[in-house]
Amino acid sequence: MKTIEEINEKIRRGEVCVVTATEMKEITSQLTPEEAVKEVDVVTTGTFGAMCSTGAFINFGHSDPPIKFKKVWLNDVEAYAGLAAVDVFIGATKPSETRELYGGAHVIEELVSGKDIELRAIGYGTDCYPNREIVTNMSLEDVNQAEMVNPRNAYQRYRAATNSSDKILRTYMGTLLPNYGNVTFAGTGEISPLNNDPEFRTIGVGTRIFLCGAKGYVIGEGTQHSPPFGTLMVRGNLKEMKPEFLKACYFPGYAPSIYLGIGIPIPVLDENIAKALSIRDSEIKTTIIDFGVARRQRPVVREVSYEELKSGKVEINGEEVRVSPLSSYYMAEKVMRELKKMIERGEFLLTMPVERLKPKEVLKPMKQKEIRVVKDLMTKAITIGEDWSIEDAAKLLIEKNVNHLPVVDSDGTLKGIVTSWDIAKAVVKRSSKVSEIMTKDVITVYPEDPIAIAVSKLEKFDISALPVVDSRKRVLGIITSETLSKLLGR
Question: What is the DSSP letter of 143?
């Protein structure tokens, strides 16, 4: 069995054998684990993907007269100022208050790229910090400290996403096409750091890592760490990072985010570590979940391996569905090769963790007082058929004192909807049949959907009612903004 000290001595002497995780797969396909331990000292692993839970602490130094930040904006992106006088935390996913498709991630990228940013702040105006307002421009060189501290990075593996609904969904997993039109997934599979050390023997608190071109450190298990969906909390000096390994992005309909390059060297200390480093994509399983159901526990469509995901297509309900990665293998390979060079040049020594990450952890849901669902508040829907006359529809609206009439076929399946406003316009235009005026593309909810989902749809689509349907689109009831306002006291 080797030790970290022995490997570091080899690094200092320029005699170390370093290979990338990709190269290690080929080596372990030809050598036994015992033989691989003798041949290889270090394996570099890598990932490059969107990591939303990213941000940076920045200390701007004291102004004259001094100020204690009450609120701070960097390029019009609000930063958290509830710290000491001139310390802030800028989060990657915080959107700009004035610029479209721009956010905290872009501020961080511009700083690392050497650009100036605008600091705008208001202060409390205290005896020791009398200044109440400041506006200035600063670069990364002008600040005292700029530490990237990320609560959750480098997911071991991640659930893939698809969409069973009939609407396009804009999510943090990218754009999901309706009716299982595509699948997206994140992670780099067999070359991803945590998949190559699943027992966290060499990756833990204190492990030195490659973080966006700089030497960073693992400072703990990441938030939502739940092996085999393990995560890392990491830190690194923003001033030492390279722009090519850090890219801001914007997911339409979601938020800004940031792509990070993270590499972790794994010392090949013994046969068990060598064996773990032989893992292949076919052995790494995850699930495809349905984002078309807007619940915490989204339905699992099927289990899938990273080998299938990387093939570019998977089968869902007998149909071939296109798959797209959200991570970059090209950049992950570049991270591994760059880290390999740093070690071979003697610029990067290895560290053993001072504390191991938990091999097991239960991910708890948010504790809520009450979750009210649609079926608790929906009312009986008054329905009509497509061949009804406008006159009969108008009479029904008046007789039942309602403003919305779902249009159904003989089986009760939703075909459209008409409102009192539609009827009024139809009278003026002298339309004769309901089928001529009904809205066919109807926004609906399911009875088990939370009320918050119904409210969100009413506001998003600027409508006043939602037919409640089952999985076969048969109308079960209706929920209106008027009903919600009365029951929820809004």
Answer: S
**Cα–Cα distance measured from residue 344 to residue 341, given in angstroms and rounded to the nearest whole number:** 5
> Cβ atoms within 10 A of the Cβ of 409, count?
12
368 Cβ neighbours under 8 A, 6+ residues apart: none
d(CA 139, CA 61): 13
- The catalytic residues are 128
Residue 393 in contact with residue 418, Cβ under 8 Å?
Answer: yes
Helix boundaries (H) for 177-328: 271-276, 306-310
pLDDT in tens, 391-421: 999 999 999 999 999 999 999 999 999 999 9
Q: Is 166 left (phi over 0), alpha (psi -120 to 50) or beta?
A: alpha
Burial (CB count <10 Å: 0-12, 13-18, 19+), residue 449: buried
Residue 120 structure tokens: 């705008």
290 token code pair: 């349905």
pTM: 0.86
Q: What is the mean pLDDT of residues 419-426?
A: 89
* Burial class of residue 411, CB neighbours in 10 A (0-12, 13-18, 19+): exposed
Residue 166 banded pLDDT, cuts 50, 70, 90: confident
Spatial contact of 43 and 336, defined as CB atoms under 8 Å apart = no
- List CB contacts of 401: < 8 A, sequence separation 6 or more: none
**Residue partners of 290: CB distance under 8 A and separation at least 6:** 162, 163, 164, 298, 299, 300, 301
Residue 13, pLDDT > 80, answer: yes
Q: Give the pLDDT band of residue 243 (cuts 50, 70, 90).
A: very high
The two three-digit tokens of residue 24, written as one number: 């290690």
pLDDT at 11 over 70: yes
Q: Name the residue among 226, 187, 229, 166 with its Cα closest to residue 323.
A: 187
Average pLDDT over residues 363-368: 86
- Of the chain, the end-to-end C-alpha distance in Å amounts to 68
Query: Within 117-200, where are the H helices?
Result: none
How many C-alpha atoms does 75 have within 13 Å on its Cβ side? 24
Compute the distance between CA of residue 20 and CA of residue 23 in angstroms, rounded to an integer: 5
The burial of 459, by beta-carbon neighbours within 10 Å (0-12 exposed, 13-18 middle, 19 or more buried), is given as exposed
